[in-house]
Amino acid sequence: MATPEAPGQRPESWHAALHRLQRDGLPHALATQVTSAGSTPREPGARMVITEHEVFDTLGGGTFEWQTIEAARERLSKGEAGMSLEAFSLGGRSGQCCGGSVNVLLEVFPGSATTLAIFGAGHVGTELARLAAPLPWRVLWHDSRSKAFPDWAAHQPRLECHYSPDPQAAVAALPAGSHALVLTHDHAEDRALVDALLSRGDSASLGLIGSQSKWASFRSRLTDAGHGEAALATVRCPIGTAGGGTGGDKTPYAIALAALAELLPLVGNAERAEQRGLEPAELRALFN
Question: How many Cβ atoms from other residues are within 10 Å of residue 278's Cβ?
Answer without folding.
Answer: 16
